[in-house]
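Protocol step 4 of 6: structure prediction from sequence.
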Amino acid sequence: MKIDRRDFFATLGGAAVVAAMTHEARADALEHYLMGAAASGAAKPFPTAAQIEAQIETRPTRRGVGNLFVSAQGNVKHLQPLPEKPTLQDYFKLRFTRTSNHCLQSANRAMKTGMSEEIILACLLHDTVQELIKVDHAYWGAQMYEPYVSPKVAFAIRYHQALRFYDDKENGYEYPDLYRNVFGVDYQPEPYIREAWEMAKKHQWYYESRMVTVNDLYAFEPNVNPQLEQFTDIIGRHFKQPSEGLGYDHSPAAHMWRSISFPDHPL
């Protein structure tokens, strides 16, 4: 049976959730998906925005909560402490566990298609802030990375969120079916999102941000497992690692890194 990869991932909560699942859990989920599809005899219709809204009081957590603060399955686990002066690579290995595979695949795709190093870096970083928060994650992400990357990279991260809601077939981007499941088939983005898109498409760095959306995979490439080490040189050339360690350099974003470092601190 041929399956819609995007629809399958959407039923599980998206690519980041699937990345955190074991191979056995993914196999079980696929089996249940195929059984459900066979039983229905037809593809499940996309929900409406009103139906999505009605689901709010049926969940123990809100959808905007960061990955570190909620478990995909069962209870949350103890986190391994970061080094005294943590680097970006340390955060990837010890905190970005539910976003790293997706971001690595995105950056890998950008690299394979000949994108610039700044676009590759933006792809590598674009969704990592979802470990802290999901709602308006592109704005949070740009703020978190601004002290350490070029203005162009920060722009690409900030506006990829708004651009994802609008087709750009000339540059190879179409509105994904995943969003019809997540937001509702009749969903209309908030006015501020449209305003951001209108501004960004006239900006000199529109292409960089659009390429983040083009390389923002909504399904994983089978048998492709990029490693962080293949981006070491790009990080070294384009990421300003503070000597004090991320979270301890007194930058305007240091508190965001500390929040990711210590998600169990009550105050």
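Step 5 (inspection) to follow. The chain has a mean pLDDT of 88.
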